[in-house]
Amino acid sequence: MGKNYIDIENDQGEMLRYRKHVNGRGLIAHGAKVHPSAIVEAGAYVEPGVQIAAGAHVGRGVWVETDAVIGPDAEIAPHAHIGPRAAIGPRVKIGVRTQVGHDARVAGGSLIGDDETIADGERVATDKRGLRLAA
Known about the structure:
Radius of gyration: 14 Å
GO molecular function: acyltransferase activity
CATH topology: UDP N-Acetylglucosamine Acyltransferase, domain 1
Number of helices: 0
Number of domains: 1
EC number: 2.3.1.203
Protein name: UDP-N-acetylbacillosamine N-acetyltransferase
Pfam families: Hexapep (PF00132)
Largest sheet: 8 strands, mixed
CATH architecture: 3 Solenoid
Enzyme class: transferase
Shape: globular
């Protein structure tokens, strides 16, 4: 049986240890908190300080940067990027290849389409069709 972790050197030359999440085999950094019922697919990276709530689904190739929060039952589609300290509310759906900037906030129940960009610090809320609501 293979080992359940991998060590990767970051840009500052520090070694970070990632464990393979039991649901999906995505890589979870030491210091991140992922609920056991969440799914983190293979090829996804979850950095230190991240919190992923119950029922969340993080797709293949997603990168969740430090101190981001993913709410309950949120769905992050493959190859999306969630920036540092971003907050994704409950039941949010983030599309394929979508970029969420650092310190951005996506309100619960929002639908963010494929290939969209949410700017650093931006606050976003949408209706069930993905139309943005006035702030």
